[in-house]
Specification:
The chain has a single domain, classed as Hydantoin permease (Orthogonal Bundle), CATH 1.10.4160. By secondary structure, it is mostly helical. 77% of the residues lie in helices and 0% in strands.
C-alpha cells in the first residue's frame, strides 16, 4: 500500500540494516551512553542497559517494524490502517512530533560537533580545564555561529533525503556506516593503549552489583536504550514501511540491535580509558562537559592529539548525521503520505519548520538570556526540549506502541507479519508475553518514577 511514487523502498537488506543502525547510532551512543555509564556507577549500568535492550527494546523494535511493514505507510497512516475508526493514530502522531522535536535540539548539538572537528584538529582548544570550559561557553553563546551550524546540519540532512530512500538514505549510510565503524575501532585501540587505561577499563568492566536494582540506574538505562535505538519516535516504524515483505524482520532487528549496542559499548572503550588518563577525571561528568570540555583536555595533552581529537569529532558528526537523517524522514514520510506531496517539496517544508524550531535551542546557551534559563523550569530551552522529548515522549511512545501491538492490533496479527515467508520467531510465546505485559509495565513504572523525581 504505497501512497505515492515518492515513498521509495530499500534496495537490499544490508541497506536497511545500515540505515536503521545509522538511525540508532548517534549522539546517544557516543555522548549520552558514556555519560549515563559514568552517572550510573560504571559497569553496573552497562549490565542493566543490556537487560533493557534485550527484554524491552528488542521486542518493541520488532513491534514497530511489524506495524510499519504491514501497512507500508508513515506512523499515523499505518496505525489508521491497522486500527480503523479508533484514536490509536494519535500514537503515530506522537512519533511524528517526537522526530521533529528531537531533531530541533539534536541538530544544534550536531553543529557543535561539526565545529569541533576544526577546533580540535587545529589545536584551537588548549589550556587547563577552566580555559577549555571557557572556550566552550563562549562558542555556544555565539548565536549567529550556532544558528549557522544548525542550518548546515539540516541542509546536509535535507539534501540526503531529497535523493530518496534508495538513492539518498541508503546510498549515504552505506558509505558513512563503514567509515563510522572504522573510526570507532581505531580510536578504541588508541584509547586502551594510553597510560591510565587500565583504571578506566576496570571502572567500565567491573560492575558494582549493589546498585543493580537502583531505580535511578534502571530509569537511566531504559531511557538511554530508547534514545539510542530510536524507539518511540516513529523512526523504526517508518524505516520498516520501506522494507520488502520477503525480508526477515527478526534478522533485520537483530542486526540493528547488535550494531547499535556494539557501537555504544565501543564508545565506552574510547571515553573511559581516555578519561582516566587525565589527572582528576570525574567519570560522572555528563552532557557537554564530557565531550566538549573533558576530552579536548586529553587531546591537548597527547602526542599528535589534535589528529586524535579531529578524528573523534568527525566520528561524532558522522554518527549524528546518520541519526538526523532518520529523524527528519519521519515527518517527511507523514507529509508525503498525507498530502501526496513530492519528496523534494515535503523535505524542504519539514526541514524549514524544524530549523525554525531549532533556533531557540541554538540561542539558548548564552546568546539570548531568557532562553538560557527559562523561568519556572530553571533550565535552558535546549535542556527543556531534551527533557521533554527524551525523558517523556520516547518512553510514552514505546509504552503506547506496546499496548497497541499487544492489545489493539493484536499479537496474532503482529506475529503473522513477523513470521512472513516461513520465518519462525524463536520464543514467540516469550515475545508475546514481553510485549503484552513486561514492556508496558516496566515503561509505565519508569515514567512514573521520572515524574516523581522532578
Amino acid at each position: 500500500m504505497v501512497s505515492t511514487s515518492d515513498r521509495g523502498s530499500w534496495g537490499s537488506r544490508a541497506g536497511f540494516v545500515l540505515a536503521a543502525a545509522g538511525s540508532a547510532v548517534g549522539l546517544g551512543n557516543l555522548w549520552s551512553f558514556p555519560s549515563q555509564v559514568g552517572q550510573g556507577g560504571g559497569a553496573v549500568f552497562v549490565v542493566v542497559y543490556l537487560a533493557c535492550v534485550l527484554l524491552i527494546c528488542l521486542p518493541i523494535m520488532l513491534a514497530e517494524l511489524a506495524v510499519g511493514r504491514a501497512a507500508q505507510l508513515d506512523p499515523v497512516a499505518s496505525i489508521r490502517v491497522l486500527s480503523p475508526n479508533s484514536r490509536w493514530w494519535l500514537v503515530g502522531l506522537l512519533g511524528v512530533l517526537a522526530g521533529a522535536g528531537i531533531l530541533s535540539f539534536y541538530s544544534v548539538i550536531a553543529g557543535w560537533s561539526l565545529a569541533y572537528i576544526w577546533f580540535a584538529g587545529t589545536g584551537s582548544v588548549t589550556g587547563d580545564a577552566d580555559a577549555i570550559g571557557a572556550f566552550f561557553t563562549r562558542f555556544t553563546a555565539n548565536g549567529p555561529v550556532n544558528v549557522g551550524l544548525t542550518f548546515v546540519i539540516l541542509g546536509l540532512t535535507a539534501t540526503v533525503l531529497i535523493g530518496g530512500v534508495r538513492s539518498g538514505i541508503e546510498r549515504v549510510t552505506k558509505l558513512m556506516m563503514p567509515a563510522l565503524i572504522s573510526l570507532l575501532l581505531i580510536l578504541a585501540i588508541r584509547a586502551v593503549s594510553l597510560p591510565g587505561a587500565v583504571a578506566g577499563l576496570s571502572y567500565y568492566l567491573k560492575p558494582d552489583f549493589s546498585r543493580l536494582f537502583d531505580p535511578t540506574v534502571i530509569n537511566a538505562a531504559l531511557g538511554q536504550a530508547f534514545f539510542s535505538l530510536s524507539l518511540g519516535m516513529g523512526a523504526m516504524l517508518t524505516y520498516g514501511s520501506y522494507l520488502d515483505r520477503k525480508e526477515s524482520l527478526i534478522t533485520a532487528a537483530g542486526w540493528v540491535v547488535l550494531l547499535d549496542t556494539g557501537m555504544a559499548l565501543l564508545a565506552g572503550f574510547i571515553i573511559f580509558p581516555s578519561g582516566f588518563s587525565i589527572p582528576g577525571f570525574d567519570p560522572s561528568e555528563s552532557g557537554p562537559g564530557l565531550i566538549f570540555v573533558v576530552l579536548p583536555r586529553l587531546f591537548a595533552e597527547l602526542p599528535s592529539g589534535h589528529l586524535f581529537g579531529g578524528a573523534f569529532f568527525m566520528l561524532l558528526t558522522l554518527a549524528a548525521v546518520t541519526s538526523t537523517i532518520s529523524l527528519l524522514e519521519v515527518p517527511v514520510a507523514y507529509v508525503i503520505d498525507t498530502h501526496r506531496w513530492s519528496r523534494p517539496r515535503a523535505v524542504l517544508l519539514v526541514a524549514t519548520v524544524v530549523f525554525l524550531l531549532a533556533i531557540p535551542s541554538a540561542l539558548g546557551n548564552g546568546a539570548v538570556n531568557f532562553l538560557s534559563k527559562l523561568p519556572m523550569v530553571g533550565m535552558s530551552f535546549l535542556d527543556l526540549m531534551a527533557t521533554l522529548w527524551n525523558n517523556f515522549a520516547l518512553p510514552l511512545g514505546g509504552f503506547l506502541i506496546a499496548i497497541f501491538v499487544g492489545r489493539a492490533w493484536g499479537v496474532k496479527h503482529a506475529l503473522a507479519e513477523i513470521e512472513r515467508q516461513d520465518t519462525w520467531l524463536t520464543g514467540r510465546a516469550l515475545w508475546s508475553f514481553l510485549i503484552r505485559w513486561v514492556c508496558p509495565v516496566a515503561i509505565a513504572m519508569i515514567i512514573v518514577y521520572t515524574v516523581m523525581s522532578m
